[in-house]
Amino acid sequence: MKSGQQKMDWARQYMPVLGSIRREFEEKRPLEGVTIGMALHVEAKTAVLVETLAAGGAEVYITGCNPLSTQDDVAEALNEVAGVHCYAKRACSNEEYYAAINRVLDARPSITIDDGMDLIFELHTRRQDLLPGIIGGCEETTTGIHRLRSMADEGALKFPVIAVNDTPMKRHFDNVHGTGESSLSAIMATTNCLLAGKYLVVAGYGYCGRGVARKARGLGARVIVTEVDTRRALEAHMEGFAVMPMEAASALGEIFITTTGNTSILTERHFPLLRDGAILSNAGHFNVEIDVEWLEKNAGDIERRDGIDTYVLDGHKIHVLAEGRLVNLATPKGMGHPIEVMDLSFALQALSAKYILENGKSLVAGVYDVPNAIDEEVAGRKLTSLGITIDALSEEQEHYMSAWDIGT
Ligand SMILES: NC(=O)c1ccc[n+]([C@@H]2O[C@H](COP(=O)([O-])OP(=O)(O)OC[C@H]3O[C@@H](n4cnc5c(N)ncnc54)[C@H](O)[C@@H]3O)[C@@H](O)[C@H]2O)c1
Ligand SMILES: N[C@@H](CCSC[C@H]1O[C@@H](n2cnc3c(=O)[nH]cnc32)[C@H](O)[C@@H]1O)C(=O)O
């Protein structure tokens, strides 16, 4: 077996939820004749989602959603799956990246599945001619949904999109546990540095940030949190983390992980304050949380290793991992989120794609929650796969929970 197929085989065995959906898809073929266009991180777990959609009868066209996260052997293996066409390539240029997005759109998909909204952006700008053929889309990540909501607010969004990220079965597991574990393991595998006892700065205490902060504390790091939201800063404080502005944290931190989805978190204001040998990484969105562009232009000297660029500023070394792109996916050692976590996220994607096919035509353009029934179904399937049973409300309890006239 070739390495890409071996990776898919490995992932498949820890994806019981998607496996159960695949068996149903094979039998009922709910996506028969549908063309799906996708831009996701092309690696083994994504490949298992793709083969599940193809098993449901879809013709799938896929490319990457990040120039550094594609695993070429998996891309090759995907091209051998019947009904699948994969255009992703690791370390592609910006031009190649958008050319591949356009090849996916050339297939005239009626459903889109995005991670970061690059397909939908292209459709609403340079490929508007294809909009009438779109039934709807699904979006995987927080920043993609921020962008979609801004489009919807301006009346610019032209079809319904399911906000897969925002449903509990996604963000409470993928963003918290997935980003927490995969970012730290990628940093450790890339640097071989110890976390125990180190000052580790987490920028942003949202779903991703709290996962990173908690798991880093579990490994013995001294965690500092930076925030701009008063309530989240207070939550971090009461969880026992030190909270301070980034300028103060810059002088203390030994490892930095940005998880804000915002821009300009570590910039020329902070670089001169950093300790010699500080390690900077991003687990948020795109390559704008750390101002790598400024470092590239202003560093006295630059040394490049596999997954680590070292910038020398006034004799101080600043190490940036994965060119400031998602550290858990874009470092050569980054494998992305753990398989079991992506099993949940991609089960939601498969069921949401089916939902949008069945219901998209009756929905007006806008951003929609994953239907609660799908969220509950994924949780139920996961519990079943674990052999865990839970209690059910009795009639008396159901009545009590919905009554307003029963007091002290
Ligand atoms: N690496 C991954 O695999 C992965 C996984 C899931 C999500 N993401 C991405 O991570 C980012 C965060 O996602 P999330 O679900 O945690 O979002 P979130 O909205 O829950 O959290 C982001 C937090 O960052 C804070 N923030 C914003 N600007 C800040 C600033 N200047 N300084 C400090 N804090 C600031 C916000 O107040 C918020 O609390 C998004 O871009 C998302 O797309 C990455
Ligand atoms: N395309 C942007 C968007 C952020 S990706 C963040 C998303 O990646 C997803 N993700 C994380 N790990 C994996 C993985 O291993 N395979 C596929 N998707 C993943 C996860 O669900 C999360 O919402 C960028 O590359 O900067």
TrEMBL record:
Residues 175-334 form the S-adenosyl-L-homocysteine hydrolase NAD binding domain. Its EC number is 3.13.2.1. One of its GO terms (molecular function) is adenosylhomocysteinase activity. Pfam families: AdoHcyase (PF05221), AdoHcyase_NAD (PF00670). One of its GO terms (biological process) is S-adenosylmethionine cycle. Gene3D superfamilies: Adenosylhomocysteinase-like, NAD(P)-binding Rossmann-like Domain. InterPro entries: Adenosylhomocyst_ase-like_sf, Adenosylhomocysteinase-like, Ado_hCys_hydrolase_NAD-bd, NAD(P)-bd_dom_sf, S-Ado-L-homoCys_hydrolase_CS. Keywords: NAD, One-carbon metabolism. Coiled coil: none annotated. The keyword NAD applies. This is Adenosylhomocysteinase. It comes from Methanofollis fontis.
